[in-house]
Amino acid sequence: MIVKFDCGCIGLADVPGDPEGHSFILKPCDLGREDPSGPCLDWRDMDGKSYVRLPDKDALVLLGEICTLVRDGHNFRAIKRLIS
Description:
This protein has 84 residues and is an alpha+beta fold. The protein has one helix spanning 56-83, and strands at residues 2-5, 10-12, 23-27, 42-44, 51-53. The protein starts with a strand and ends with a helix.
């Protein structure tokens, strides 16, 4: 479930596997000022912060943005291989 924390970060709450108990953040609340809309994957300590489920519509938009970034990265690497 994708959630929005009270600070504004959007991510996954209670993700197993992180030894420090951090949450996996998909879109931090303090993302760089030059591109405040894009996703940026990171682990963060969200201990003590409350959260609510992100509406499905917003979650689908964010996941679409992440998929586009992954595809763009793959395409960039393919072009780089062709011209090297």
